[in-house]
Structures are given as C-alpha cells and as structure tokens.
Structure prediction request, 171 residues.
Amino acid sequence: MLIKWRNSRCRCLHQLKPNKRAVNALEAIIDEHSTMVHQFNGNDKEMSWDGYIWLYKKNDGAQSKSNFDGRVSVQIKGHNDPQHKFLNSEKISYPVELDDLKAYATEKGVLYFLIFLDGNQREIFYASLYPSKIADYLEAAQKKGNSGTYNIPFLKLEKDAKKIIHNRKTI
Prediction:
C-alpha cells in the first residue's frame, strides 16, 4: 500500500500505523550505535523529509558540539507487505516522486528508507540520494517522459547501524 496524502491533508489511521512501526524499526537500529542519534518527526509534518540522523565522531556516546560530525536528512516510508513481495528481496526498485527528488537536490541529498512490514517481520531498504545522483535520476526521468515518479534502486539495509554511517559518507 502506498501511503499518500489525501486532498484534505489528513490520513486514515490504518495508514499511520505502518509508518509509525517503520520509524520504530529504524530507530531501534540507530539506537544500537553510540555515534548516532535520530530525530524523526511524526506524521509527515515536513514537506519531503521525516527528520535527521545526527552523527558523532567518537564512539563514547558524547553528544557535544566538539564531537559533532554531521547530520543526514532522512525520508522514511512504511508499507505493509502481507504477500512478501519485498520482504525477501535483497534489492528493489521503487517509485519516488520527482518533486521530492527536486526538493532533496536543494540540500545535500537524503538517505531514503523504505520499510516493509508483515506481523513481526520487517525489511529495511535504503537509497543514498546525493545531489549528483539525484540529477542523474531527474535527467533520466525527463528523457523517459516521466512527469510524476521515477523508479529508484534500493538496497537491503543490514541490521547494523554501522552501514548507515558508511552510507552517510556518500551524501
């Protein structure tokens, strides 16, 4: 199920639950690593982002300005996947709105997470979308005549927070 805004900008309750569970799944992975802190906004209050992952240099848990290493913008999309179309995959392709890609390009990019859920099963996929990669996707979409979305490749996230740090360095 794709989660989209209704014209009234309200969402059905059954659509909010997968997003909340998805955010919780990502938070649990980030909480395992002392050099990362998450700050995610609930219920899609920002235009194209859901918050940030704050990164720190030293592995001592100190969240001081002198230990600050940067901040990564994130987008998180949660989806129910009862047929396991995505749950057992290593990589997937998924449509991302071109307007969102244009918004991400105005900043340093985004770590985009897709989280698929079924009961207690979950699978997290990510795409490191940095400005030059976004420009390539927008150009390819234009050449194909796409006006709404473009299919982006996503990789399965290992259930280790260190992988997020490695991907942050590409943004």
Q: What stands out?
A: Residues 16 and 74 are 18 Å apart (CA to CA). The chain has four helices and seven strands. The longest strand covers residues 68-80. Residues 13-31 form the longest helix (19 residues).
